[in-house]
Amino acid sequence: MNDPQGNEGPPAMRAALLAWYDRHARSLPWRAPPGSGSRTDPYRVWLSEIMLQQTTVPHAAPYFAKFTERWPRVEALAAADRDDVLAAWAGLGYYARARNLHKCAQALAAQGGFPETVEGLKALPGVGDYTSAAIGAIAFDLPHVPVDGNVERVMARIFALETPLPAAKPEIRALAARFAADDRPGDFAQALMDLGATVCTPKSPACALCPWRDNCAAFAQGDPAAYPKRAPKKKKPHRQGVAFWMQRDGAVLLRRQPDEGLLGGMWLPPSTPWREEAWSEGEALGHAPAAAEWEDIGAEARHVFTHFSLGLEIWRAAAPAGFTPDAEERFVKLEDLPESGLPSVGRKVWKLAAS
Fold first, then answer.
1. pTM of the model
2. Tens digits of per-residue pLDDT, 265-297?
3. 305-310 contacts, C-beta under 8 A, 24 or more apart
4. Using CA atoms, how far apart are residues 21 and 176, in angstroms rounded to an integer?
5. Strands 238-248 and 309-318
6. Domain-wise residue ranges, the chain
7. Alpha-helix runs per DSSP H in the chain
8. Which pLDDT band holds residue 162 (cuts at 50, 70, 90)?
9. How does pLDDT run across 233-255, given as a tens digit for each residue?
10. 31-42 burial by CB neighbour count: b if 16+ within 10 A, else e?
11. What does the pLDDT average to over 136-153?
12. H or E element in which residue 238 lies
């Protein structure tokens, strides 16, 4: 690891970055204007930070607008039906976030609002080290530096950190903590995020525009894009399954997924479990929602999750006479599917089955 270049330490670097942020801050719907001295509503900070986990700003922004219009305060979100929250979340992925979002809203409503300490925030459902530091800094002016992927990249380059990610994460958090101070902690946190998102980008960083260029050890070496170092990626395993598309009177059968699963609480067409081995016809039929004239339509819905890829064969049938859904199943009219909250993999099955 190298120390930042030049003679400037963290205080001068903070001042330079804040001056840059005052001129170049992104205008985002959950932010207070830079330098305004006004605190951002902690509900909006919390909601945006949960949505932005593993999600880009352009993708999250429409969801944020939809949520805040429908549930403008945390009490309204707490009182919402969980299925409505999950349906509104559909398409953002990582659905445990949506379940924890609703659970956290209920906890906040019960205790009368947001705690104003990082420790109190971290005790909330779905709120970890990064999110508690981000809410604390941005909403409550606490002197913490939250470390997301953008900040990791900035710090790895400023210090030319040779330790590869993810092993470098504790070291990066310690380096970022050097910049913590009482002077505009919320603006500084967001300035670091903006620097990584708009200037110190993963590929082809715009070093000529960077207020920290003269302090950057990676820039001094001539190859900032070589940082952060990363451990070799492991090949993602591939899993297989069969999805059962069963229709009756212009409606399709959906099944609620168990809460503890990957898509917990979401509604999907029934399927076999997902596994590495292919499914034989006899095995697959043992998981069908009913004995019916199942037809393999010869199409496969493919989807990539964080830790594995998935291929779902699609079998289609009409519901047999007298079929009754169980407690975790329901028929949904085809015209209502766009608003039903189908996650992305379910929409892929729908698109292929409907064609």
1. 0.81
2. 889 999 999 999 999 999 999 999 999 999 999
3. 305/262, 306/54, 306/94, 307/236, 307/237, 308/236, 308/237, 308/238, 308/239, 309/236, 309/237, 309/238, 309/239, 310/238, 310/239, 310/240, 310/241, 310/274, 310/345
4. 17
5. parallel
6. 10-226, 238-354
7. 10-24, 42-52, 57-70, 74-79, 82-89, 96-111, 118-122, 129-140, 149-158, 169-177, 185-198, 217-221, 281-285, 344-354
8. very high
9. 888 999 999 999 999 999 999 99
10. bbebeeeeebbb
11. 95
12. strand 238-248
Three-class SS state of 258? coil
CA distances for 187 relative to 164, 172, 289, 335, angstroms:
29, 20, 53, 45
Single-letter amino acid code for the residue at 139: A
Average pLDDT over residues 67-90: 95
Helix or strand holding residue 248 (H, E): strand 238-248
Please give the CATH architecture assigned to the domain spanning 10-226: Orthogonal Bundle (1.10)
**Does residue 331 sit in helix, strand or coil?**
strand
Rounded-to-integer distance, Cα 88 and Cα 132, Å: 24
Concatenated DSSP letters of 42-104: HHHHHHHHHHHTTS-HHHHHHHHHHHHHH--SHHHHHHS-HHHHHHHHTTS--THHHHHHHHH
> 248 Cβ partners below 8 Å, 6+ apart?
318, 319, 323, 331
Tell me if domain 10-226 and domain 238-354 are identical in fold: no
339 catalytic per annotation: no
21 has a pLDDT exceeding 90: yes
The answer to whether the beta carbons of residues 144 and 180 sit under 8 Å apart is: yes
Portion of the chain with pLDDT greater than 70, in percent: 97
SS3 268: strand
Provide the CB-side half-sphere exposure for 349 (13 A, CA): 29
Catalytic residue among 49, 75, 281, 293: 49
The reply to whether CATH 3.40.50.1260 applies to domain 238-354 is no
Q: What CA–CA distance (Å, rounded) separates 316 from 297?
A: 7
Count the helices and strands in the chain (H runs, E runs). Answer: 14, 6
